[in-house]
Design goal:
Length: 362
């Protein structure tokens, strides 16, 4: 009998230690970093890895959204590479590094929009090599780099090329999920576009989302994530700008796309409530609230996630939007020049730490 009780006791201890409890925390505790800002090529990766080990893992971060974009050593289309890029060896190493620490790495490639960087007067490789893909064709050269460009959602040749890039990134990082971006797209149904002129903006947005979903989820079997701002109506949401919610007629696309897409709902200013989160939940989506460098805004979103009873609000995603190599990692580590880091990197790091601590509270 004593031996039997001893065995039962050992089994109980084993199950208690190994098996997750019914109340185990499954929150998505995420941070979004840019390949420009974590690496700028491979040279910034050591700082990022140190920040992961010394800061992000202790904070409980379990998801890294890594915005790769054109900073990648593409073999399928070498002309899509930026000069500074992540090598495939470095990408595989970062993926292994994260996996060993219980961090899920989700790569991101901006689709449809953000095909230029207006703050840096830079047109990205897709539009440089294939100007025929532009939604607004024949822009004067001096305007191209100062316009937030997007590709034509109906161009028949753009998707096969983009799918090659997505596949190469996903395979190299051994990803089980993929973030397609799709935020801040400002031009739909341009009267100058021979395919889109006169068409419904929401239908064009939905078409692009569905093309990507069919490939990423339908063919590749990955989970798809996207930013949610083009699925929100600026007026209905009571938002004062056309960035975090659309004033371009795209919001009705919310009813035209699959509900298994995870919506990253970003807002950077404090609000008493976030009606967009409730809207996405009501529509049947899983939502990942995201904020940036305003600590109060981030904490408000964390509290909304903590009080969720639907199971559809996943946790919290902190963004950084730092494009200089190593700066965000330095801010997390408490290193670097405070004067250089004060505008973006430092407040983003402070906000992330506060929000992860709040999310971890019982």
């Amino acid at each position: 009998m004593n031996r039997f009780l001893s065995i039962i006791s050992l089994v109980f201890v084993f199950l208690t230690v190994i098996a997750p409890s019914a109340g185990a925390d499954t929150s998505w505790r995420g941070v979004h970093v840019m390949a420009w800002g974590s690496a700028g090529g491979d040279e910034g990766l050591p700082d990022l890895k140190r920040a992961i080990d010394e800061v992000l893992v202790p904070l409980g971060v379990n998801v890294l959204v890594y915005e790769v974009g054109y900073n990648f050593a593409f073999d399928s289309h070498p002309d899509m590479r930026f000069e500074k890029m992540i090598t495939k060896e470095a990408a595989r190493d970062l993926a292994r590094f994260c996996k060993e620490r219980g961090i899920r790495l989700i790569p991101q490639f901006n689709c449809l929009g953000h095909q230029s960087w207006v703050n840096g007067d830079m047109v990205f490789p897709l539009m440089t090599v294939h100007p025929e893909f532009e939604e607004v064709p024949d822009l004067p050269e001096e305007k191209r780099a100062k316009t937030l460009m997007n590709w034509c959602p109906l161009h028949p040749e753009v998707y096969p090329l983009i799918f090659d890039l997505i596949d190469e990134i996903a395979e190299t990082f051994e990803a089980d999920a993929f973030h397609v971006g799709m935020d801040e797209i400002l031009t739909f149904a341009s009267p100058k576009c021979p395919r889109c002129a006169g068409k419904n903006a929401a239908e064009l947005m939905a078409h692009a989302v569905n093309e990507l979903h069919q490939h990423i989820v339908g063919k590749r079997g990955l989970t798809m994530l996207m930013w949610g701002d083009r699925l929100l109506d600026k007026k209905a949401m009571g938002m004062g700008n056309g960035w975090e919610a659309s004033d371009k007629g795209t919001a009705d696309a919310i009813d035209m796309i699959p509900k298994d897409i995870i919506i990253c709902d970003w807002h950077y200013s404090p609000q008493e409530a976030y009606p967009s989160i409730d809207l996405f939940v009501e529509k049947g989506f899983r939502v990942w609230p995201a904020s940036w460098k305003n600590e109060q805004a981030g904490l408000h979103m964390v509290e909304r996630a903590r009080t969720d009873t639907t199971g559809q609000i996943l946790g919290y995603l902190g963004t950084s939007w730092v494009v200089h190599a190593g700066h965000f990692a330095q801010a997390l580590l408490g290193e670097g020049d405070p004067e250089v880091l004060k505008d973006r990197a430092a407040p983003a790091a402070i906000t992330l730490k506060a929000c992860m601590a709040a999310l971890a509270r019982p």
